[in-house]
Amino acid sequence: MTKNANLFARLFDDLEDPSKLAIETADGNRISYGELIEFSGRTANYLVSRGVKVGDRVAAQTEKSVSALVLYLAVVRAGAVYLPLNTAYTLNELEYFFGDAEPSLIVCDPSKHAGIEAIAHKVGAKVDTMDANGDGSLREGAKKSSPEFSTIQRSGDDLAAILYTSGTTGRSKGAMLTHDNLVSNALTLKDVWRFTDKDVLIHALPIYHTHGLFVASNVTLFSRAAMIFLPKLDPELIIRLMARATVLMGVPTFYTRLLQSPNLTKDSTAHMRLFISGSAPLLAETHREWSARTGHAVLERYGMTETNMNTSNPYDGERVPGAVGFPLPGVSARVTDPETGKELPRGEIGMIEVKGPNVFKGYWRMPEKTAAEFRPDGFFITGDLGKIDSKGYVHIVGRGKDLVISGGFNVYPKEVESEIDAIPGVVESAVIGVPHADFGEGVTAVVVSDKNAKLDEAVVLHALDGKLAKFKLPKRVLFVDELPRNTMGKVQKNVLRDSYAALYSGK
Ligand code: AMP
Question: How many Å apart are CA 454 and CA 456, to the nearest integer?
């Protein structure tokens, strides 16, 4: 028989020490690798008893808990396809996901049970519950089931998960991720970030997204390391835990929030070996402040739901502020002209395209959309604009759809934002294109300033004068208390564009 390519089998078939600690929770529960496997076996048996068959989708909209992670492992083990959903999705949004993915089982918080039950029957799905402590009908059922479960045979190209992309325009698309996609990326990251069984990861990310679910959890489990599971970002608790942890993975907001604490010092971070950031751009300024305060250079990496991780700054070697590093081993990256697809010379800005075992199989039930986003030679068109510098570091300048075209000229928001961010008193900024009768789009800056700084539009425009070509200069500079962000820390430029849509038309 061919070797089982199921992610679960590759994670645990050669486990040597079942007593090794896998997860510790904020309230002191300690779960060993052996227990994780036992719980997943019980849960897998329960899933089968609920009618879940190989290839079926199992959707989960649950709070973060060890049971929620066990559910993911059990679904994969049973040969089904795990479909995690952001806890913020409303019933209206869920109805679309359920209609599209047609899960045979949905696991949800008891508070949403009645509402979800009503839409689940339309697609013939059963519903189980799981609360923030992991309690509910799923666990009750699992407890009564046998821990013995023979992991279902899967090939590397079979689906392990579908993750809907956070897509800010159009309908969300389900990214189909295979067992090989997840395994290859986790093993690569384990190596490049030097994970070992001595590591203790502070895990404060949600587990419905590729970052917390695959990058953080799979890398830890493949390394036989331990993770401390926290329900959310709690800067003071994280700083205390650093005394006995070794790695933190976070979105940029983690780092800006931690920097606000006077308790973040060289001493309090002395036990840590690695700080990793991703999912949204880490400001070069934050990177420098972090290095100055702690003596650690944050390691920034770049990835997306469809591709897992693509690039990473080096473990040894320079971690360049504002850059996302080199393509990972086995991953090819190139920058092309967005119109023609022709590869551009080094240093020029264009569309980032990637190819490798990390890249997904396509969008669920959207063959045309899938075909449109791959080049004939297999490269995936990421939608991110960027460049590769002379040393080979990849730099991202923003999403293609955030590009501003003013008077026929391309304006890359990041270039303008970097100049604005360098003005004393500016905390951060977002540059967007707003409809403009003369220019098509007017370059518009939305700025968060330091409470004590006396900044206004004129000061910012004056500071930019001579720094940027005239066509890149903002037509207006607006001040806000904070930029709108989603849960992964990404600035929601679409929200800003909607808010200021009438800025130049006065309508
Ligand atoms: P998601 O699919 O929700 O993980 O979003 C993926 C997108 O996040 C990418 O296409 C990038 O636009 C952005 N992203 C992820 N990591 C970084 C990073 N280190 N720097 C800049 N943008 C990033």
Answer: 7
Ligand 1 neighbours by CB, cut-off 6 Å = 165-166, 210, 278-281, 300, 302-305, 324, 382, 384, 396, 399, 488
Helix, strand, coil abundance in the chain, percent, nearest 5? 30, 25, 45
- Write out the two tokens for 313: 């700054």
For ligand 1, mutation pick of 307, 311, 381, 384 (most atoms within 8 Å of CB): 384
Beta strands in 16-62 (DSSP E): 21-25, 30-32, 57-61
- Ligand 1 atom closest to Cα of residue 306: 2
40 vs 44: CA distance, rounded Å: 6
- 3-class DSSP state of 100: helix
- Residue written as tokens 């069984």? 197
The predicted-structure confidence for 317-369, as pLDDT tens digits, reads as follows 999 999 999 999 999 999 999 888 999 999 999 999 999 999 999 999 999 99
Residue 154 one-letter amino acid: R
Taking the alpha carbons at both ends of the chain, their separation in whole angstroms is 68
Distance CA 289, CA 298 (A): 10
d(CA 236, CA 219): 25
Rounded distance between C-alpha atoms, residue 115 and residue 95, angstroms: 10
Compute CA distances 491 → 93, 170, 495, whole Å.
Answer: 21, 18, 9
The gap from C-alpha 412 to its chain's centroid, in whole angstroms, comes to 23
> What DSSP character marks residue 216?
I
Identify the residue whose C-alpha is closest to ligand 1 atom 15: 279
Strands (E), 11-70: 21-25, 30-32, 57-61
CA R_g for the chain: 23
C-alpha closest to that of 303 among 356, 245, 225, 375: 356
* Mean pLDDT over the full length of the chain: 95
pLDDT of residue 72: 98
Instruction: Answer for the pair 16, 31: CB distance below 8 angstroms, yes or no.
Output: no
